[in-house]
Amino acid sequence: MKDFILNSIETASVTSRPALQQLQTAFGGTLPNIARAMSTSSVLIDSLVALFGKIHGGSFSEPQIQVVLLTDAVANRASWAVAFHSFLALQAGLASEDVEAIRNGRAPAEAKLGALSTLATALIEKRGHITEADGQDFLAQGFGRDHLLEVIAIVAASTITNYTASVTEPPLETEFQPYAWTAPSV
After folding, report:
1. How far, rounded to the nearest angstrom, does the alpha carbon of residue 96 sit from its chain's CA centroid?
2. Sorted alphabetically, which InterPro entries does this protein's record hold (predicted)?
3. CB atoms within 10 A of CB 23
4. Helix spans in the chain (H)
5. Which of 32, 35, 109, 120 could bridge to 71 as Cys pair (CB 3.0-4.6 Å)?
């Protein structure tokens, strides 16, 4: 549905403007097209901003968060989000080999990042019904049960943006175009 309006802060509803302002600040003055599309619903954009703040203030590093977000974008086949999170993952210091692995449906080689990616994939593909082994494999990498539950919050935020991107089909910004991605045929 490409007929969604990409609001600016000035054209968004009064109720969506504070969330857009927060996101613009968080992204260094840039307002991603996905946020502009989301602002059509203040409930959606406000929900994302609240969750976004919790996630980025949680116990995971930014590269770890980006592993989960990029993994989810691939699992959800969300092309806009894959490009966006490829860009952000590289900016956060994730190795280009790890970004490419995730974009190609594989886990990063480093054990902890691999465990994050594998758990995120399992949560998406199994709709939260992970097995005991899925959970134990994650915990075996030194993560706690609190971390496992925190990954669910990251997956929730990612799902909001992935689904919104799939529904609204925002154009890919110029700076993310080098990371354009098309889901493989099923």
Report:
1. 17
2. AhpD-like
3. 22
4. 17-26, 33-38, 42-56, 62-75, 79-91, 96-103, 111-125, 132-139, 145-168
5. 120
